[in-house]
C-alpha cells in the first residue's frame, strides 16, 4: 500500500478519512493524494475566453487556499501529501483519479447511519464504493490506531469470492487476523449445516490449498444478512469488516441488492470493499 486517495469536502467526516489515511500512510510509508472536487456549472466549465473564465480561476484559487489550510494538520507531518483540485459537477471522477495515479486504496468519510451526505451524495456513493476497481475504506468516526488486527470477511463461500479473499489477505498483510463469516437467513438461500460445511471446505481448498484456517470460519443465523454481520462483528470485537462488491451487475449471490453499501453506511466499524 504505497498510494492512498482521500476525497476532501472540508467536512469533519473527510477529516476523519484524512486522519485515517495518515495512520495507514505512516504504517506503510505511503503517499496521500488529497482530492477536492470543485463543483462548477457547465457554463463556467465550457466558457470561451470571453466568457466567465476569470470566475473559474477565482474559484480554483479560493479552493486551493482553503485546501492548503485544511491540509495543515499535525498528523500529516512526515507524510508526502499531494493535493489535487479537479473541477467537476460530481464525484464520479474519484475512481478515475485513483487509477490515474496508480493508487492502492481510496479512503472516504461518511455520516454513518444518516447516509453518505457529506463526501458522497446519492448515486455517487455507489459509483465509488460499488464500481471502484480499488479497495475502498469507509470511515465514520474519528480514527484511533486502525490496527485492523481482527477482521471479519462475510462470504457466501462461492468461487467468485475466492479471488477477493486472496486480495484481502494480500492487502491487509500478516498483522491482520481474518475471520470468515456465513450468515444463514430464512428463505430460499437458507443452507443446512452439511451444505455450509461443504461450501467452506471447497472454498478454503481453492483459496489456501488446505483446511488450516477452518477454526476461523463462523456461522450465525439472523433475520437479515446486514444485521447478522453487524451483530457478530460487534460481539466478536472486530476492527474492520471487509465486503466484496460486484460492480454494475449488482452484488454477488450472497450480497444481493445493496447490502455492501448499506453495511458501509450503517455499521459503526470501518468497512472496506473489494470489487469482485
UniProtKB/TrEMBL annotation:
The record's annotation in Pfam families points to:
Usp
- Could you tell me which residue ranges the UspA domain spans? 1-140, 148-274
Q: Which domain of life is it from?
A: Bacteria
Q: Which SUPFAM superfamilies match?
A: Adenine nucleotide alpha hydrolases-like
Q: Which residues form a coiled coil?
A: none
Q: Which InterPro entries match?
A: Rossmann-like_a/b/a_fold, Universal_stress_UspA, UspA
Matching PANTHER family: STRESS RESPONSE PROTEIN NHAX, UNIVERSAL STRESS PROTEIN UP12
What is the similarity comment for this entry?
Answer: Belongs to the universal stress protein A family.
The identity of this protein, by name, is Universal stress protein
Q: Which organism is it from?
A: Gelidibacter gilvus
